[in-house]
């Protein structure tokens, strides 16, 4: 993490949360390809990854 965010040196995590969902938010099926998000986002150097993305 420090190599990606050097300014995080010395910071301390004060809160975290893990959300578990019983069913996937993306359901793959016939005709769903147009609704898959691209891997690129408008945020510089931030990408989506996963089988649900357009590749």
Automatic annotation (TrEMBL):
GO molecular function terms listed in the Swiss-Prot or TrEMBL record: oxidoreductase activity
Recorded superkingdom: Eukaryota
Occurrences of domain Amine oxidase (ranges): 7-54
Protein name: Amine oxidase domain-containing protein
Lineage, opening ranks: Eukaryota, Viridiplantae, Streptophyta, Embryophyta, Tracheophyta
């Amino acid at each position: 993490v420090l190599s990606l965010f050097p300014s995080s040196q010395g910071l301390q995590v004060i809160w975290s949360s893990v959300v578990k969902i019983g069913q996937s938010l993306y359901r793959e099926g016939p005709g769903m390809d147009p609704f898959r998000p691209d891997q690129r986002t408008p945020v510089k150097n931030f990408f989506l990854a996963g089988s649900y993305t357009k590749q």
